[in-house]
Amino acid sequence: QAYLSYSNIAALTHLARKPGWDITKTLDNIRIWTHEEGAVLSFKVEMQVKVPSHVAFSLLSDFSLRQRWDRHFLTCKVLQAVSEEEKIYHVTSAPMTGHQPRDFVVLVSQRQPCRPQEPYTVAVRSVTLRTVPPSPEFCRSEILCAGFQIHSNSSSSCTVCYFNQVTSGVMPYLAANLTGSSKSIEDTALECIKFLE
């Protein structure tokens, strides 16, 4: 478990630091970036939020609050509290047209910064739990690497960056988006900002 949580945080930090991010969209307080490497597509949503970074961190690290702003989350329940900083959740998501509803078993690891210039981190990756085998009503999907980095801008504002390394499991939700025919990423980001503020 210690290795899993370490590699969860490390994978997100590594993804965030990769060179070669291309900006695809800029709105008032949201910027969307993409990064392609072989068959792997990653995206980053950068949001300017008018709350202190520690407040954004406490709201975003509690995944049971996620349904309040992310309409892709249908249900989210804690399966196991591994430690104060690690929880395993079972998430179900609404079916897309022509697709079975999906479910995910994810480890959410949260870290406070060790040094002032470091971000708060909430890292997410799929894990396997014998007690929650795939069920016929859902298509079990995998999250390779996703999560948030929260950088403090001032005592009352922060920059929230959401990252996701896209697998075929998440692709139906994003394909329409990145081609510009759907505003789902922007809408979700706006809901996130509204929720945090």
Please provide a brief summary of the model.
It holds the Pfam family START. The protein has 197 residues and is an alpha+beta fold.
Question: Can you walk through the features of this model?
Answer:
With 197 residues, the chain is of the alpha+beta class. It has a single domain (1-196), classed as Alpha-D-Glucose-1,6-Bisphosphate, Chain A, domain 4 (2-Layer Sandwich). Helix content is 23%, strand content 40%. The chain has 4 helices and 10 strands. The chain has helices spanning 2-17, 53-60, 171-178, 184-196; strands spanning 22-26, 30-37, 40-49, 73-81, 86-93, 102-111, 120-126, 139-140, 145-154, 157-166. Strands 1, 2, 3, 4, 5, 6, 7, 8, 9 and 10 form a 10-stranded mixed sheet that branches. The radius of gyration is 16 Å and the shape is globular. The termini are far apart. The mean pLDDT is 88.
Q: What labels describe this entry?
A:
globular; single chain; ten-stranded mixed β-sheet; Alpha-D-Glucose-1,6-Bisphosphate, Chain A, domain 4; START_lipid-bd_dom; alpha+beta; ACO12 thioesterase
